């Protein structure tokens, strides 16, 4: 059974850092794309980043501040978030899809309906 569990959220001051984890079970993160998404109250869910064995791609709003990485032995994907801003406040979700959808040359991966399995989310609040 495919399962994704996010952790690592919390309250952080503007300019601070957090690392989110997405623990996968029922499949290997080697074989699929893993994506991070976020949803703020009253807003639609938006794409943040995706990663495969060969590619990492980021939304413009987080480029240069957020970095994805994978630990294949632990079957975990991370989202390192730095220089956090109040507008980064949201519930963050990880999801999985066909690795062909995650590309650094297009934002096709940002289409929500492409992603098949989702975690329950973890809250990130950036506030002083």
In short:
The protein has strands spanning 3-7, 10-12, 18-25, 33-39, 46-51, 56-58, 66-71, 76-81, 90-97, 117-118, 122-126. It has 128 residues and is mostly beta strands. Strands 2, 4, 5, 6, 9, 10 and 11 form a seven-stranded mixed sheet that branches. A four-stranded antiparallel sheet has the order 1-3-8-7, with no helix packed on it.
Account of the 3D structure:
The chain is mainly β and 128 residues long. The protein is built from no helices and eleven strands. The strands form two sheets. Strands 2, 4, 5, 6, 9, 10 and 11 form a seven-stranded mixed β-sheet that branches. The model has no long low-confidence stretch (mean pLDDT 96).
Q: Element order, helices and strands?
A: EEEEEEEEEEE
β content, as a range?
Answer: over 45%
Q: Give the CA-based shape.
A: globular
Which structural class matches the secondary elements? Answer: mainly beta
Bin the helical content.
under 10%
Which ranges are low-confidence, i.e. pLDDT below 50, for 5 or more consecutive residues? Answer: none
Overall pLDDT confidence = 96
Instruction: Count every beta strand, where a strand is a DSSP E run of 2 or more residues.
Output: 11
Radius of gyration: 13 Å
- Biggest pleated-sheet summary: 7 strands, mixed
Number of helices: 0
How far the N terminus sits from the C terminus, by CA atoms, comes to 40 Å
List the helices and strands and how they pair.
Blueprint: E1 3-7, E2 10-12, E3 18-25, E4 33-39, E5 46-51, E6 56-58, E7 66-71, E8 76-81, E9 90-97, E10 117-118, E11 122-126
Parallel strand pairs: 2-11
Antiparallel strand pairs: 1-3, 3-8, 4-5, 4-9, 5-6, 7-8, 9-10, 9-11
């Amino acid at each position: 059974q495919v399962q994704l569990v996010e952790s690592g959220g919390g309250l952080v001051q503007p300019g601070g850092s957090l690392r989110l984890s997405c623990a996968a079970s029922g499949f290997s993160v080697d074989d699929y794309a893993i994506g991070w998404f976020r949803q703020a109250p009253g807003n639609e869910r938006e794409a943040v980043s995706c990663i495969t064995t060969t590619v990492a791609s980021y939304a413009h709003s987080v480029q240069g501040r957020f970095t994805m990485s994978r630990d294949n032995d632990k079957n975990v994907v991370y989202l390192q978030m730095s220089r956090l801003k109040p507008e980064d406040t949201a519930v963050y979700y990880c999801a999985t899809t066909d690795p062909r959808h995650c590309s650094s040359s297009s934002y096709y991966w940002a289409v929500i309906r492409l992603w098949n399995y989702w975690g329950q989310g973890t809250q990130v609040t950036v506030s002083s």
